[in-house]
Amino acid sequence: MRDEKLGIAVFGAGRWGVHLVRNFLEHPNARLIAVVDTEGDRLNALAERFPLDNVKLSTDWEAVMQLQDVQGVAIATPATTHALLIQAALEQGHHVLSEKPLTLDGAESIKLCQLAEQHQRQLVIDHTYLFHPAVRQGRKTLQTGDLGELRYGYAARTHLGPVRQDVDALWDLAIHDIAIFNHWLNETPTQVQAQGTVWLQSQSPNTQFFPQGLSDLVWLKLIYPSGFQALVHLCWLNPDKQRRLCIAGSQGTLIFDELSTSPLTLQRGYLEQTDQYFIPAGQSVEALELEPAEPLRQVCDHFLDCMAQNRPSEISSGWVGAKLVQILSALTTSLNQGGQIVSVP
Length: 345
Description:
Blueprint: E1 6-11, H1 15-26, E2 30-36, H2 40-49, E3 56-58, H3 61-65, E4 72-75, H4 82-91, E5 95-99, H5 106-118, E6 123-126, H6 133-143, E7 150-160, H7 169-185, E8 191-197, E9 217-223, E10 229-235, E11 237-249, E12 252-257, E13 264-274, E14 277-287, H8 295-309, H9 318-336, E15 342-343
Parallel strand pairs: 1-2, 1-4, 2-3, 4-5, 5-6, 7-10
Antiparallel strand pairs: 7-11, 8-9, 8-15, 9-10, 11-12, 12-13, 13-14
C-alpha cells in the first residue's frame, strides 16, 4: 500500500534548514526522505540532533532531486542558488517551498512562477511572518474598519548583527515588513524610495548590484495606489533591537510588536475639535488575543496542503514572492540613485 504521507527533501542544513527538518520530521502528513547540504559537517551535526536513520543525507543535490519518493522539496539555501534549484525541482515534477527571497531578480522570479504553472506544480514561498498569529489577526482587525480611514504606516527592524556579506540590510530585512504591509493592506506599492548608509563593507562581491557597498542602515518609503504610505527603518548595526510595525488610522493605531509580551495591540483614539483646539478623545488600549502557533509550522502545514490539493497558495504563492522581489529591486535602484522615487513594474 502506498504511503499516504508526502515525501519531502530539504535542501540546506543551515540555521533555517534545521527548523524545516524538525517540522517535517514531526509532521503527521510528511515523510522526510532526504536532506542535502554541501557541507558534510552540517549533515553530521544534524544526524546527532535528530533521528535520521531512515533519511538520506547527501551532498549531491542532483541525485536527491531524482529520488522516486520525493514529491516536494523545501529550499533553505543562499538566495543566489534558488533559481537553479527551483527550476530543477519543478522540471523533475516536484512541488517547491522556497525560503525568501524567491530570487534576486524580478524577471527570473516571474519565469519560475510560469514554469510552476506549466508543470502544474505548486511554488510556495516561506514568508514566515504571513503565517504569524499576530499578522493573521491584524489583517482581520483591519478588515473590521475599527481603525477608520487608514492614514500611514511605519516600521522598525533593527539589531546588532548578524551582518550579511552577500546582500545589504535592505535585502536581508525589508522583505518581512513589506510583506506584512502588503498583506494587511491587500495592495502592493507602485512607487518606492530608499536611502542607505554604509559603514562596514564599502565593497561588495556583487558590484553590479551593490556598487556603493552593502548598506548597514536603510530608510525606505512605500507608496501605494490608495495613497497610503509606509516608512521603514532597517539596521543591523544597532543594539536597540526592534521588531515593530504599525498602521495608523483616523480612529486608532494597530501595533505589531514582536518583542512585546502583548505582540498585537489596538490603541484607539482620535481628535475632537473644540473651538480652535484639537482635544484627544476615545483613548483606550486593547491587547488582541492570539492563538498560539509556531509560524513555520503553519508554513509547513500550508505547503503540504497545497501539495495534497495541488492548488496555489492564497497567502504566499510564487507570484507573491515575485512581486516582493520586484519591489526590492526597485528599492535597490532608488538607493543606488541616491534616494530617487522609482516606479515598481
